[in-house]
Amino acid sequence: MEKGKENVIVLVYNNTGEMRKYSGTTLIDDGATCWFADPRSVTFEHEDIFENDTLVLPASSKTIVGAIDDSGTVKAVQYDNITDEKKEIIIDTGFEPDDHNNPTFLYLPDHRIMVFWSKHTSEEYWYYRVTQEPDNLTTLGEEKCVSVEGYGDFTYPSPFYMSDAPDSFFICWRGVNWHPTIAKYSLPNENDNIVCEKEPTQIVQTIGQRPYVKYESNGKDKIYFTFITAHPDNNYPNWVYYSEIDINTFDLYNIEGDILCEGENLPLGKDEQINTSSDYGSLTVDNPDNKRDWVWDIAVDKDGSIVILFTQISNDKSQHDYYYAK
Known about the structure:
Layout: E1 7-13, E2 19-25, E3 41-46, E4 49-51, E5 54-57, E6 60-68, E7 74-80, E8 86-92, E9 104-107, E10 113-117, E11 125-130, E12 144-147, E13 155-160, E14 168-174, E15 180-186, E16 196-202, E17 212-217, E18 222-228, E19 240-246, E20 252-253, E21 259-261, E22 284-286, E23 291-300, E24 306-314, E25 320-325
Antiparallel strand pairs: 1-2, 3-6, 4-5, 6-7, 7-8, 9-10, 10-11, 11-12, 13-14, 14-15, 15-16, 17-18, 18-19, 19-20, 19-22, 20-21, 23-24, 24-25
């Protein structure tokens, strides 16, 4: 992709060697993201909203893309899908020029936008800002800082709004013991302040130093997640696992709906750390004996099925094979 051009052409080769062309628009000339903090971009849209026959919020369709640039500036671009207007917003400055520090976004039920970011596992804090107007990232309010002192450093924020908890939101990150962690907070009030409603809780404990996790949700009561036991440089071979957490109880379930661990007993694996030599059949997605597995993404398809994208890399890193599990 040619950098700095408004109209770009991406050349893609399929598995038969056939070349295809896709055109697009560059939104950020200088910026990077890491794929373990999500969502790194969001599109939100709605029709005209009326109350008592009075228009209170006009129709909107916008896409927001976040990044951090090589000067350590956390930023985003807001693209209006109706008017083609593009606006760049500075979220914070003075961070390390590190792709782990990219921002993530949460579209709130009142149509405001909440932005999350943090440093790369070097502070027991995370940061957020909330727009003062609906559907408009250019109206961000003041920066707020949330302490998670005592629960480890913070990186990779992944926020969720769930209909079973309409006055709250949930956030997942790499925290306690460098492992996947979840907490529940109140929605921001009129002064953009939030309250912790359920303290940070480690979800699983693996044999590895730092599991890598991707999250998704059904928007109602379950957060789905897929993870590897550790960075492949530290744990080889590396298996892919899947589980889901009930946000009402923090109970963990497998794909068949069988309970794996009650919320009060988390993390799963605290007595026998999850590893590639134990029998975790109800969690296992892929179990190679000579590959470096990496999770790339998790999503729910149009039929409601869970889909996990992952790659297998040879130990000498010369061969990369891509798979999905459904």
